[in-house]
Amino acid sequence: MARIPGGPAEFDKIGPRLKAMLRAARYHGVELDPNEFRAASAVPAAADLSQWAQDAGMWSRAVRIRWSHLLRFQDAGPVVLLFNDGGAALLTGASAERNVVFLKSADAPEDGEAVAIDELRLSQVWTGEALLLRATRSYVAADAPFTLRWLAELVRLESHALRDITIASFTLSVLTILPPLIVMTVVNKVLQFNSISTLVLLSAVIAVVFAYETLLGHARRLIINVVGARLDTKLQLHVFSRLLRLPLDYFERHPAGETMYHLAQVYRIREFLTGKLLSTFLDMITLCVLVPVMFYINTALAWIVLACAVVIMLIILAFLMPLRRRYQRVVDAETWKSAALGETVVGIKTVKALGLEPQRKALWDERVAEAGKARLAFGQLASWPQTLVTPIERVMVLGTMLIGAYLAMNDRTGYMVGGLFAFMMITQRVAQPLVGLARLVEDYEEVGAAIGEAASVLNRPLESSSNSTGLRPRLVGEVVFSDLTFSYIATKTPALDRVSFHIPAGSMFGIVGRSGSGKSTVARLLQGINRDYSGFLKLDGVDLKEINLRHLRQGLGVVLQDNFLFRGSIRDNIIAGRPGLTLSDAMRAAHLAGAQEFIERMPNGYDTYIEEGSPNLSGGQKQRLAIARALIHDPTILILDEATSALDPESEAVVSANLMRIASGRTMIIVSHRLASLTECDNILVMDQGKVLDVAPHATLLERCALYRQLWSQQNRHLDGRHGRPVAVPPRLV
């Protein structure tokens, strides 16, 4: 957990792979921080290095390439080559004419010359592992709005696979023409003229066509499965990435159930992309082949089929707007139902403790009834298009057969019978795609609503683009609030009103005040949760709005009053922010937080499994684990936001005893309403109604700050011998 300070001497202490990454990133104007890189292995893997660069806001890919690829990097930026012995070098250029590449060692000086290396010498130390990286471009697909256009672009990226599917589908469509034509030939030629040789030839052709069609169909289905899996994966990754980048105040203002329901609509979008849309696209290819053949066989019957398809389309279009309005009611009802369910699950402890089961059940019954009514109304209206379309579908198939039979009876050539058989076989293949194409419009309306629901979450303003940009200064711990004013959304009274104070680096700083005075708001602003304030908030002389959010939060350790522990072992929870660290690192952080003693008494020690909600841990144990988790990455600034207010006296005594050790070498900000835990602070900020009343050490505040003196007297009355136990006053009858 030791920090790597800056400077040439410290640069020499890190490994060659990290050095190569630092120099390659510097070429693109990005300064990587070695303190942000954590890996379990002594030799960093390519994937870990690539993730390190991506976390810093760069585009990076770990790849395996051949010598012929290296020769193409003549004018590109540096490429990091990873050697077999754990070393690395920078590829700075190549010469295809001389068949050499130019490499610079990671340990070479900045102005050192690159060395020409041929394929034979390089192959002795390198097997193709490399890292490509560059600065992030201004437009990032991950930042694009979640719209139908974005989804179309997602599908377009699979153009190569879609090309193969198109070729296979076109070939299969051509092959579907042969069976009807063969049937027509059998009826018109074989049956009329008893030609056995023609029958044998046609049988051989059918066998070959069926075998080829089977193999080609199997290959097409495999490609479709791959494309579907890729689209699904990209969609899910994008959704979760956007969800993590939403600001905290969004989750504070929206029920978890509502958010989960809106995001669940992504599954409907996925099914549409990989199901209905793809199958309709393939059906369109079939129609492009079969419709001309249908007109070739019989023009009159073909026009009847197309007329029926147009009528079906018009019926569906007529119902689109009413269906859209009814479906929006379904969406609203389902959203409120999911919100009620999510709120009940999240607050189940309160429901059980207060016996609120009947009330929650009544609310759930009401929400289910509303959703059921909305779905029933939508289903009743949606059944009408199907009712009207069904007889037209029957006319398309059976009607053309009857009309064709009538035409065949009046055909003197005798060839109409075979043509009728062929036409009926083709009509069976054409009718379903035509109806499916018409219904695709209806499906699109539902998917359009689903896109709108998902977009209502995913298209919210993200926390900040500074996740990938922004300054990355080396944090020391000096904090300055200067004339800062901040108000929460939809409130008129400012939470902080022209607040100014200074926290020197490495000091212990306390913040006290009545409830609602703005204590926790100060901590929120320091974490970058809210940035829409006026005035200045500077960290080590740098405006906090300009600092990269990820870099900022990696330099902070935050312990809240109520901390959430994830399902998993105690060790996994402690090193959650640094998964590459070892058990010894977890033990060191636990010892510093005063948690080591109770962990070692657990049945499985650091491997003890924590269930959801941490039922096997006391409040004090959870709090000490949270402090250990905050300390695991050696933060420059540690914020304890009412971290000891919910502790029992024993646990609070353990944490308080370790505060001086915890504070060593870092800035510690303690937000608390218990003044006894702040007496060792270098300075204490007293706040009231969003304003600063005073800033001074404990003893000074007792002398000159009336509010602080009043709070201290209220909390420590038991220490004053003059105040005994209050005397009970007997009631009097009036």
Automatic annotation (TrEMBL):
It is a multi-pass membrane protein. Residues 479-714 form the ABC transporter domain. The chain crosses the membrane at residues 165-187, 193-212, 277-295, 301-320. Keywords: ATP-binding, Cell membrane, Hydrolase, Membrane, Nucleotide-binding, Sugar transport, Transmembrane, Transmembrane helix, Transport. It comes from the Bacteria. It is found in: Cell membrane. PROSITE patterns: ABC_TM1F, ABC_TRANSPORTER_1, ABC_TRANSPORTER_2, PEPTIDASE_C39. Residues 10-133 form the Peptidase C39 domain. GO terms for cellular component: plasma membrane. One of its GO terms (molecular function) is ATP hydrolysis activity. Pfam families: ABC_membrane, ABC_tran. InterPro entries: AAA+_ATPase, ABC1_TM_dom, ABC1_TM_sf, ABC_transporter-like_ATP-bd, ABC_transporter-like_CS, P-loop_NTPase, Peptidase_C39, Type_1_exporter. GO terms for biological process: proteolysis. Residues 165-446 form the ABC transmembrane type-1 domain. Signal peptide: none annotated. Belongs to the ABC transporter superfamily. This is ABC transporter ATP-binding protein. It comes from Rhizobium loti.
